[in-house]
Design brief:
InterPro entries: Spore_0_M. This is Sporulation protein. This protein has 2 domains: 3-139, Sandwich (Immunoglobulin-like), CATH 2.60.40; 143-254, no CATH class. The chain is mainly beta and 260 residues long. The N and C termini lie far apart (57 Å). The protein has helices at 143-154, 242-254, and strands at residues 3-6, 16-21, 25-26, 31-39, 45-61, 66-77, 82-84, 89-97, 106-107, 110-111, 117-125, 131-136, 138-139, 158-166, 178-185, 193-202, 206-215, 224-233. It has 2 helices and 18 strands.
């Protein structure tokens, strides 16, 4: 399935840009392929640069408020400067690698609310403002990530929300300037937990799985956050019963309330 987006006319010459993605469904570590097509306007125009990248809209916590910020987390130049002839067409194919840490935006074919990731196209024209555009992509989980997500569902957890936050998770292999949190409501048997936040931080071999469990307050104690993390090989995860593995930790934290 191809996804097309047409930018408005650029500069006095009226050039336009169309980005066509060959396939919008990708996985971390994969490649999104497409083609950028530049249509010349009524006059020749000097093109100073053309690039594509990946952009995410993330949450940033300020001192007194939260706000959204667009972060471009990978970028690739497509050739150098050239002159676009009036009425001419310049087509440039590309294959843009998806970083292993890229947050997932789809689970079992359903879009995760709050996820906004796409391919940016930037065209720099002499004496005109740089033009950019965003073509959304669907990032599906790796098999190892899906195994963990399936285990949460098997244990009775319900999806609450997902977000991307600027910052770093200590003790992980994280390289991107932001990370994803997938939030779940727990079932009744984990009655001491308000919610669980799940984060994946992967490279080409292994991923860190980070759980943040929000414990309910007790009669004489405040609520607290408990963290657990472990590593999962991307190619040797099949031999573990992940539902049983997670249940051990979750039961320890949330099977009963700490009243004191």
């Amino acid at each position: 399935m191809a996804f097309k987006k047409l930018l408005a006319s650029l500069g006095a010459g009226g050039a336009s840009v169309e980005t066509v993605l060959t396939e919008v469904n990708v996985v971390p570590g994969g490649v999104v392929q497409g083609e950028v097509r530049i249509q010349g306007g009524s006059v020749n125009q000097a093109i100073e640069g053309l690039s594509v990248g990946l952009q995410a809209r993330v949450e940033v916590e300020g001192q007194d408020s939260e706000y959204k910020q667009d972060i471009e987390f990978t970028k690739m130049q497509l050739g150098g400067a050239f002159e676009l002839q009036a009425g001419g067409v310049h087509a440039v194919p590309f294959g843009l690698e998806i970083p292993w840490e890229t947050p997932i935006t789809m689970i079992d074919g359903q879009a995760l609310r709050g996820m906004n990731i796409g391919v940016t196209t930037e065209l720099a024209i002499a004496r005109a403002v740089d033009s950019t555009d965003l073509d959304p992509i669907n990032v599906h989980p790796l098999p190892a990530q899906k195994a963990i997500l399936d285990a949460f569902i098997q244990l009775g957890f319900r999806f609450k929300n997902a977000d991307m936050e600027r910052g770093h998770i200590r003790g992980t292999r994280q390289k991107l300037p932001f990370y994803q949190e997938i939030e779940f409501f727990p079932p009744q048997q984990y009655r001491g937990i308000n919610q669980v936040e799940l984060s994946f931080v992967a490279d080409e071999h292994t991923m860190d799985v980070v759980l943040e469990m929000d414990k309910k307050p007790g009669l004489f104690s405040e609520g607290s956050d408990t963290f657990r993390s472990f590593q999962v090989g991307l190619n040797d995860f099949q031999g573990t019963d992940w539902a049983a593995y997670l249940n051990q930790w979750l039961s320890e934290v949330g099977s009963k309330r700490n009243w004191f």
